[in-house]
Design brief:
By secondary structure, this protein is mostly helical. The chain is built from six helices and no strands. Helix 2 packs antiparallel against helix 3. The radius of gyration is 21 Å and the shape is flat. It starts with a helix and ends with a helix.
Length: 172
């Protein structure tokens, strides 16, 4: 039974492949969309303030899309490292030693995606009151996530013996 359970971890390859293929597809789509926006800037648009807002909104949405593609790639790398091959070399800035670190990366991405999406809404804003409700909602979600991360880090820092960092404790 133990051998079966340990071998079943290779099913995570499905999540790795899905994340990788989805990320690549989103990145290609984002690149094509970028070219479409650039061509539209010069071929179809008048050089007005309204046209510039539309272009800005288009690029903000592309950034959101490209960022999601990169996150899916990072998710594929993280899942692969955690479940399949712990010896895979990742860049120094991408430290994924345990599942909790991958979740923190993803939570950070959610915050950035919310902020980018809200920025896009602000650029497209028509002066109505709905933007206030959206802004408050986004702010509450970001504050809640921030509070969860703060409490988690606070508890971790206070549960460890003095002089031992969280990273060192996880290695032991």
């Amino acid at each position: 039974m133990e051998r079966l359970l340990l071998s079943a971890r290779y099913l995570v390859v499905l999540a790795v492949l899905a994340s990788l293929v989805g990320g690549v597809a989103i990145l290609i789509y984002g690149a094509v969309l970028t070219l479409h926006i650039i061509s539209g800037m010069f071929l179809e648009k008048a050089f007005t303030i309204e046209a510039s807002k539309e272009v800005a909104l288009g690029f903000i949405e592309v950034i959101d899309l490209l960022f999601l593609g990169v996150v899916m790639y990072i998710t594929a790398l993280g899942l692969y490292r955690l479940f399949i091959n712990q010896t895979i070399h990742l860049p120094q800035w991408l430290k994924i030693e345990e599942f909790e670190e991958l979740k923190i990366i993803l939570v950070g991405v959610v915050i950035v995606l919310l902020a980018v999406n809200f920025t896009g809404q602000v650029v497209d804003w028509q002066g109505t009151r709905e933007i206030l409700a959206l802004g408050l909602s986004v702010s509450l979600v970001i504050a809640a996530i921030g509070l969860i991360l703060y409490v988690r880090n606070y508890k971790l820092a206070h549960l460890l013996p003095e002089g031992i960092s969280a990273d060192r404790q996880m290695d032991e």
